[in-house]
Amino acid sequence: MGVRVRVRIRAVGKEVETSALVNTGFESNLPEVILPTPVAERLGLYPEFKPGTRAEEYSVVGGETIVGYMVPASVHIQVVAEDVESSPILASATILHGEEEVIISDKLAEDLEIVVLAPASGLWRFRWDPSGLKRPSAPKERWSGK
Length: 146
Hints:
single chain, mainly beta, Cathepsin D, subunit A, domain 1, 6-stranded mixed beta barrel, two-stranded antiparallel sheet, globular
């Protein structure tokens, strides 16, 4: 199942609310979020690139390498739970053609204070939540045709 959280992403005066996969295998030194092309379009980050955007290679499952477009420090992202919202975090956005869901890096998950409790069951909590609280994953949202 994986852990997915509801997020609000803001950029260039625009906003998208969707679910995002928390991927601790997506290692990054800075807070980073992968955006499917339709999300980047809604946020005004694509197809016209912002200054500082650069092409980067990403390795994906199966050893394949694909090119993504990194837009440094371009989005504010926060977790939106039913009862509380996290503080917004400034993150870099990477636009990957063919990706269908928003994906949060390990560093961004840590900065958003997400604690993965049971990855296969989709359970998580915020770092500040009571230790016994278990939050369920948000439903998966695909952005291929939106």
